[in-house]
Amino acid sequence: MLLIQNIRLSRILRNTWQVDLIMIASCTVSYLVREYLISHHFSVPSIIPTLLGTAIAFFIGFNNNQAYDRWWEARKVWGALVNDSRSFARALLNYVDEDEESVKRMIYRHIGFLYALKANLRGTIDEIYTKYLTEADLKEIEKHNNKHNALLNIQSRDLQKLSKSNAIDGFRFIEINEMLTRFSDSMGMSERIKNTIFPTTYSYLTKVFIWLFVVTFTLVISEDAGPASIFLGWLIGFVFVSTQINGMSLVNPFENNSAGVPLNQITRTIEINLLQMLEEEEIPEPVKPINEEYVL
């Protein structure tokens, strides 16, 4: 997630330079075609780039709105995980009587659940979660593809044991069990966002229309601007392309990049909070911003 208020132009160019080169080449070819092939036969009506520009603005605006909705929903889901995780640990620490070992094991297992879920959403191999699990837990989840879901199942079983041993009363059992249900809901919503592909036609058609617009715009203004139409065509195209790329960077909010939801930071924050609630001595450092620009 980006932290800085003002983004340097150099950063934008690093993300768009390949497209910029292709646009400059397209504008150059368009200028040469107009100058040496079609200028004596007909002229391109200015209404064409005007209509295309209007259509592109609607397409980009719609795509960016939908992309941001996906990003914001993902951020709300993980914000809920932060709140529920703290409540879960607090409930176990204060409601369970005379079974500190089980409480500690369940809180540790919850930290492992968060790291396993994060690794799954990021599509990375992250074994951090294993240090918070017992040998029995690791052996049980080894046969599961969805390890974070398997960990929730173990949590439910341990909660049932606490209820049968009268370590918690019925009301508090229901309250803590509802938290486990909310964890499952958040897990499912995260997986839905990750596995639901943004309609490819939206992005593809927007790109096609931008190229058509750049070419026709260059053809139209080359009559008056001459060779300068190459630069002007690229400049206008750069505005549309940059805006479109900015929106598409939010389509996959769990990607491990500067535009994604900062899962590393959020997970580490929960880890620190829960370990401090357990009064542990070894507390990891918070995740620090990279180059003071963004946090993963």
TrEMBL record:
InterPro entries: YneE/VCCN1/2-like. The keyword Transmembrane applies. Keywords: Cell membrane, Ion transport, Membrane, Transmembrane, Transmembrane helix, Transport. It is a multi-pass membrane protein. This is Putative membrane protein. It comes from the Bacteria. Belongs to the anion channel-forming bestrophin (TC 1.A.46) family. GO terms for molecular function: chloride channel activity. GO terms for cellular component: plasma membrane. PANTHER family: UPF0187 PROTEIN YNEE, VOLTAGE-DEPENDENT ANION CHANNEL-FORMING PROTEIN YNEE. It is found in: Cell membrane. The chain crosses the membrane at residues 12-32, 44-62, 202-222, 228-245.
